[in-house]
């Protein structure tokens, strides 16, 4: 475990639900409180001062994504970025997995409703995800983009972004939802044309935080349909005229975001940058391996990939002959928080998760045999 990283959090030891929500650090909580306190005592300098947090958060997100501020924009959530991308595709077919989280479906459905992009749904094999072979088999001349999750929300399957880029070639767009990966998985984000992520899960920044990065190809080919008043040239000129969209990623800005949430986002991103993604990723991998061993020792069937190179921080499993709701009840009795679905359970530890969490899971599963 990254002791220095874990020291920033007050999360209970048995919390294993970071794929759903990541409790923020004391750093993010303090930044939020300070920004709110400053806003309560506002004077002529307050708004401009608070707004600087957005620039700080954007710059840090850009560095972590391997790009720069010109290609990065803060957003209130991942869904906003996905709608920007989906409505920006002028025409053509977009390949997307049928098994993906619904937030990755509705933007393409709405795009189709408007006569723009037409989704073609891919069907990954159970326990797998969008692979280069699956994409190659579906490629046709009218395919203009591929939309994938960097890490599958159900199983933790880690997409091979570099291989997907190679499979689709240089002229098609690769659009990536990074919410289950960014900050905890070392991936070649520069292989993607669009990367979107919300900050409320693994980045542990709280709700209403997020960002997107756009490649030069994306800036050139995606129409800025949702550009708002803050996403245009000469933002401060209120002359009643329509201004052209900004030439960079700012064109995806609709209005000013909350400087309070931007302060929390900046603090959360700084924590990731200081402790480094590879170190955080390695600590999570240790816990995933330990939890996998425990689940299998008690007869569980692991639904996540077994190859460490193809999995991230998610362990999905079933316990034969045990209803997931009953397994959840046993976990809750040991102070373990997990995602409970009708057909499976999902454990998702972070770098701050202590060994005690594994012991609690073992105790819970052991109790089911009594």
Mean pLDDT: 97
Structural class: alpha/beta
Distance between termini? 32 Å
Order of strands, widest sheet: 1-7-6-5-4-2-3
Shape: globular
Query: What is the CA-atom radius of gyration, in angstroms?
Result: 21 Å
What amount of the residues lies in strands? 5-15%
Major beta sheet summary: 7 strands, mixed
Oligomer: single chain
What would your notes on this structure say?
The chain is an alpha/beta fold and 370 residues long. It has a 7-stranded mixed beta sheet, with helices on both faces. β4, α7 and β5 form a beta-alpha-beta unit. α11 crosses α12. The protein is globular, with a radius of gyration of 21 Å. It starts with a helix and ends with a helix. The relative contact order is 0.18.
Write a brief structural summary.
The chain has helices at residues 3-6, 26-40, 46-64, 78-88, 106-113, 132-138, 161-168, 216-221, 259-275, 277-297, 324-333, 355-367; strands at residues 72-74, 92-97, 117-122, 143-149, 173-177, 194-198, 210-214, 301-302, 315-318, 339-340, 345-347. The protein is α/β, with parallel strands linked by helices.
List the main descriptive attributes of the protein structure presented here.
370 residues; alpha/beta; seven-stranded mixed sheet; four-stranded antiparallel sheet; 12 helices; 11 strands; 13% strand; globular
């Amino acid at each position: 475990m990254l002791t220095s990283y874990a020291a920033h959090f007050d999360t209970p030891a048995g919390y294993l639900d970071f794929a759903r929500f990541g409790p923020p650090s004391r750093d993010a909580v303090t930044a939020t409180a300070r920004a709110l306190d400053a806003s309560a005592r506002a004077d002529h300098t307050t708004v401009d001062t608070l707004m600087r947090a957005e620039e700080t958060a954007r710059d840090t997100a850009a560095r972590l994504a391997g790009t720069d501020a010109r290609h990065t924009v803060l957003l209130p959530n991942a869904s906003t970025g996905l709608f920007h991308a989906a409505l920006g595709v002028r025409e053509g077919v977009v390949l997307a997995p049928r098994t993906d989280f619904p937030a990755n479906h509705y933007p393409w459905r709405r795009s189709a409703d408007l006569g723009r992009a037409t989704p073609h749904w891919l069907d990954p094999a159970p326990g797998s995800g969008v692979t280069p072979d699956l994409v190659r088999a579906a490629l046709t001349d009218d395919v203009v983009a591929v939309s994938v999750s960097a890490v599958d929300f159900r199983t933790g399957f880690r997409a091979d972004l570099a291989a997907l880029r190679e499979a689709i070639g240089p002229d098609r767009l690769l659009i990536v939802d990074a919410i289950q990966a960014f900050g905890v998985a070392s991936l070649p984000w520069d292989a993607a044309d669009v990367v979107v992520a919300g900050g409320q899960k693994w980045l542990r920044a709280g709700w209403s935080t997020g960002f997107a990065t756009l490649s030069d190809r994306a800036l050139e080919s995606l129409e800025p349909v949702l550009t708002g008043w803050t996403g245009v040239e000469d933002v401060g000129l209120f002359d009643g005229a329509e201004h052209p969209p900004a030439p960079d990623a700012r064109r995806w800005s609709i209005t000013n975001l909350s400087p309070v949430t931007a302060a929390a986002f900046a603090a959360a991103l700084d924590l990731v940058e200081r402790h480094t993604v590879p170190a955080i990723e390695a600590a999570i991998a240790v816990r995933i391996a330990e939890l996998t061993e425990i689940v299998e020792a008690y007869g569980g069937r692991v639904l996540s990939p077994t190859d460490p190179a193809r999995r991230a921080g998610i362990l999905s499993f079933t316990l034969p002959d045990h209803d997931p709701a009953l397994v959840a009840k046993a976990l809750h009795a040991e102070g373990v928080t997990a995602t409970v679905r009708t057909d499976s359970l999902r454990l998702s530890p972070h770098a701050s998760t202590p060994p005690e969490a594994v012991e609690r899971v073992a105790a819970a599963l052991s109790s089911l045999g009594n």
